[in-house]
Amino acid sequence: MGVIQRRNGGPLFIAEGDLVTERALAAGCEPVAVLCSEKGARRLAEFAPDYERYTFYATEELRRNVTGLGVPLEVISLFKRPEPDRADELLQRFRFGVFADNVDNPVNVGSIARNMAAMGWDALFLDDNSADPLARRALRVSMGNAFHVPHARVANTAEFVRAAADAGVATIALTPSTDAVPLRKVQLGDQRRLVVLGSERDGLPDEVLNACTLRVRIEMQEGIDSLNVAAASAVACYTLGK
Fold this sequence. Notes:
242 residues, alpha/beta, CATH 3.30.1330.30, Alpha/beta knot
């Protein structure tokens, strides 16, 4: 279970809890091993008929130590990582997408994936500095909903955004800048769209801002300069997903 979760993903990932395990299996991910309690085994039997071939019973202490959470989860699973999507192929088929640039906190990436799944958005692009959507914490926060959102890595954010614009996609930089268009005033019709999110501290670099076709802001009360990036993604996906 001591798998290092790199930003670009290792060969395996960990699914914590029965719900995330169930959603990983439903997404077609191949299990390597599962640690569980007797209660967890009964739950596994509900959605994984052949669970016994890769499942091991473990004490509360062992399960607590494995997660490092202080909570002995009933089910802890290790899966083979699925083949990643190619950014160029995903670009051709998505309708509503999000690009996370320098969003390095897995909790934020997991929350973004969960928001996207809830709103029906169908592609998540990430630069090499952003966290792994299949990291432990990201999967836990997303409640396994990250499996519903195809994701791909991109080497150069600005170049990809320009390529998306050339393909007819509305590329929308989310920024607190006062000269940006208020989100509620954006009208895109049936045009495909890509919302570009930056780090919470620094936002999007000028190169990326200049590559986008629109700069959009979420209007807030005076004295409040920004939202958490995951909260901002929820507002943007809800507003622009109609």
